[in-house]
Amino acid sequence: MRQEIEYELMRNIRQLGHLDIAGGGQIVVQDGYAYIGHMKPPMGTSIIDIGDPANPTVVAHVPPPDGLSHTHKVRVCGDIMITNVEQDQRHFLRKGAKIAEVRARLGAGSSDAEIAAQLGVEPADIAVLEDAQERGYDSGGFRVWDIKDKTRPRLLSYVRTHGFGVHRFDMDKSHAYISTEMKGYIGNILVTYDITNPSAPVEISRWHLPGQHIAGGETPTWDGYGVRLHHAMRCGDELWAAVWHAGFRVLDARDLTAPKVKGSYRFPPAIPEPTHTVMPLEQTIGGRRYAVAIDEEHNHSPGRLHAFIWILDVTDIGNMVPVAAWDLSERASPWAGQDGVRFGAHQFREKLDCTLVYATWFAGGLRVLDLADPMQPVEVAHFIPEPGPGGPAQSNDVDVDDAGRIYLLDRNNGLDILEIPR
């Protein structure tokens, strides 16, 4: 007889407010405002007054530059906001580049159904993919905004890059660390811009993995786009770069015109999911330095490992060693295993200023871990949103304000404002 499971959707946490808003890829909180980069056009970037957490209010919205782009990532530093511009549905549309090759292999008389079967799409999609190939895409890049007046963001500059454009990125008051495709390279690389004049950003350097620079005579040792920069985070004099199925690299950022690898780690081939984000804790523990890495869940096959969190001892950058891992059982969420619902890890708050790690787990919601003992991560709180208009929870990103309030963004719909009782 099947045993019914009681699911605890909330533990050691309380909900302060909720905003019914289109789903997003990133949320950033600064000085009483939240900034959301939305997943799908025509939604672009929303600015939300969160002074009253029980009544969050949208005060401004800037759309994408066109209907073919999404602007699902956002960063803010002082009165400057940067938003990405990336081709919407890029993973799907990328398959169009393979149509000619597949048609040649199958023969001139091959049908759309036969080609679609090879590409893993529907027959009706072939025309869509061919149209996209003919149309091309040249909007990719990033936009820089003046947000002194939060109700009226003012565009200062629009830097176009190449290919599908810009994905996730980091910034500070003087530089932007952009993950983008560039002409002559395969997959995203790191391009650093000087933004001291935000009206005219200046490229000062590029960094890539060996094999990515096709135009420079390099040859990748991998197929497709499985090895590339996801994004790099500036941490003091270092850049911590997640490079997807190649693990991560630590770059010496003392000279931003020529970043160099000072440390490298690649997870074993048996680990199926790619590295999404990696950062060190700002404090040492027991005299040792630790970092947190999180993988991103994709399509899941039964028996395959879900994406999870790694804790690494990085005291010696030349010999970084995983010392612990933290995973979540599918039994923790009533929506794990449903068709089209991702369950495993995705992202954590990109500021590790204490031993708490705030992580999003797609259908597993928000998980808050304490790394006071890095060898034994302990979950101290969690929150799984109720299903919304987009279906079960797909918790995508999280940030925390100076008062300790937590802002949990769903990929499909909704923003939840939470706090851990003191």
Describe the structure.
- This protein is mainly beta and about 425 residues long.
- It has helices at about 90-95, 100-105, 110-120, 125-135, and strands spanning about 10, 15-20, 25-30, 35-40, 45-50, 55-60, 70, 75, 80-85, 140-145, 155-160, 160-170, 175-180, 190-195, 200-205, 225-235, 240-245, 250, 260-265, 275-280, 290-295, 310-315, 320-325, 345-350, 355-360, 365-370, 380-385, 395-400, 405-410, 415-420.
- Helix 2 (about 100-105) crosses helix 3 (about 110-120).
- It is globular.
- It starts with 9 loop residues before the first strand and ends with a strand.
Describe the structure concisely for a colleague.
This protein has 422 residues and is mostly beta strands. The protein contains four helices and 30 strands. The longest helix is centred in the first third of the chain and has 11 residues, at 125-135.
Secondary structure: elements and pairs:
Layout: E1 10-11, E2 14-22, E3 24-30, E4 33-38, E5 45-49, E6 57-62, E7 69-70, E8 74-77, E9 80-87, H1 90-93, H2 99-106, H3 112-119, H4 125-135, E10 141-146, E11 154-160, E12 162-171, E13 175-181, E14 189-194, E15 202-207, E16 227-235, E17 238-244, E18 248-252, E19 260-265, E20 275-280, E21 290-295, E22 309-313, E23 321-326, E24 347-348, E25 356-360, E26 366-370, E27 378-383, E28 395-400, E29 406-410, E30 413-419
Antiparallel strand pairs: 1-27, 2-30, 3-4, 4-5, 5-6, 7-9, 8-9, 9-10, 10-11, 12-13, 13-14, 14-15, 16-17, 17-18, 18-19, 20-21, 21-22, 22-23, 24-25, 25-26, 26-27, 28-29, 29-30
Helix pairs in contact: 2-3
